[in-house]
Design goal:
Blueprint: E1 8-12, H1 20-35, E2 40-44, H2 50-57, E3 63-66, H3 83-89, E4 93-96, H4 99-103, H5 109-121, E5 125-130, H6 134-138, H7 142-151, H8 154-159, E6 165-168, H9 182-199, H10 201-206, E7 208-211, H11 220-224, E8 231-234, H12 241-255
Parallel strand pairs: 1-2, 1-8, 2-3, 3-4, 4-5, 5-6, 6-7, 7-8
Helix pairs in contact: 1-2, 1-12, 7-9
Length: 259
C-alpha cells in the first residue's frame, strides 16, 4: 500500500442480507470501525436495505455504495435505479462494471462507460471493476483485456476530480476460492497505475486500485503488502463480520503510523 493513500476495504454483499440481517451486519461494522481508524471501510448492500443501512452507519465514517445503477437519470426503466435515487438513499459510492454485471448480465464496455460518466456527473464516487476470464488469462491476454476495459472509461475518470477506485478482479478468482498471487495482482495494478499516470499524474496518485477475487483473512496481508494494492474488494468474506473484521484489522495494522 502507498503511504499517501488510506487503505480502502470494501464489502460487496451481492444478493445477500437485504433486510434485518443487513442492518445487523451494518451495526457490527460500526463497532469494527472504532478499531480501524486508519482504514476506510465501504459496504455495498442490496438496494432493498440501502436506506436502513445508511441510517445505521450515519456519522460513523463508513462509506456506503450501491452495487449497480442505470445510466440515465430517470424514465420508463422498470426495476432500475438512478444515481439520484442512490444519493437520496444515502450512497456516496457506486460499484460499476462488476464481472457478474459483465458476464452474467451481458453489460458491455460501452454501457459501463455510460454508467460511469453518469455516476461521476451525479457526484457519486465510482469503483470500476476490470478483469479477465480464465480463457483470456491462459491466452496471455490479461493486460490487453484490462486495458480495453480501462480505456472505455478513462476520459470520464480523468475529467472528474472526486475520489475514485478501480478494482482488479480476475473473473476466474471470484467465488472460486482461487486467487491471483500477490505478485500477479501487483503486476496488473502497476500497469493500471502507469495507464492512469499517462492521463494524469494526479489521477494516478489519488485513485485507489483494489484487488478483488477470493480475498480472505489468510491472503489479505500478502496482497496489501504490495505497493500498488491500495485495498480489497471483498465478496463472500464481507458477509461474515469475523472474516471482514480480520481483514480490516490487518489493513489497520499495516496502515497505522509507527509509534
Amino acid at each position: 500500500m502507498h503511504p499517501k493513500r488510506r487503505p480502502l476495504i470494501a464489502g460487496n454483499w451481492k444478493m445477500n442480507k437485504g433486510g434485518v440481517t443487513g442492518i445487523q451486519l451494518a451495526h457490527q461494522i460500526v463497532e469494527l470501525k472504532k478499531e480501524t481508524p486508519h482504514v476506510d471501510l465501504l459496504i455495498a448492500p442490496p438496494f432493498t436495505v440501502l436506506s436502513a443501512v445508511a441510517h445505521e452507519i450515519e456519522h460513523h465514517g463508513i462509506l456506503l455504495a450501491a452495487q449497480n445503477m442505470h445510466g440515465k437519470p430517470s424514465g420508463a426503466f422498470t426495476g432500475e435505479v438512478s444515481a439520484d435515487m442512490l444519493k437520496e438513499a444515502g450512497c456516496t459510492w457506486v460499484i460499476l462494471g462488476h464481472s457478474e454485471r459483465r458476464h452474467v448480465f451481458g453489460e458491455t464496455d460501452a454501457e459501463i462507460a455510460i454508467k460511469v460518466t453518469h455516476g461521476l456527473g451525479s457526484a457519486l464516487n465510482t469503483c470500476l471493476c476490470v478483469g479477465e476470464t480464465l480463457a483470456e488469462r491462459e491466452a496471455g491476454r490479461t493486460l490487453e483485456v484490462v486495458r480495453r476495459q480501462f480505456d472505455a472509461v478513462i476520459d470520464a475518470l480523468a475529467a472528474d476530480p472526486s475520489e475514485e477506485a478501480i478494482a482488479y478482479e480476475p473473473v476466474w478468482a471470484i467465488g472460486t476460492g482461487k486467487n491471483a498471487s500477490p505478485q500477479d495482482a501487483e503486476d496488473v495494478h502497476s500497469a493500471i497505475r502507469a495507464w492512469l499516470a499517462e492521463k494524469s499524474p494526479a489521477l494516478a496518485q489519488r485513485t485507489h486500485i483494489l484487488y478483488g477475487g477470493s480475498a480472505n483473512p489468510s491472503n489479505a496481508e500478502s496482497l496489501l503488502g504490495m505497493p500498488n494494492v491500495d485495498g480489497l474488494l471483498i465478496g463472500g468474506a464481507s458477509l461474515d463480520i469475523d472474516s471482514f473484521g480480520a481483514i480490516a484489522r490487518i489493513a489497520e495494522r499495516l496502515a497505522r503510523p509507527a509509534s
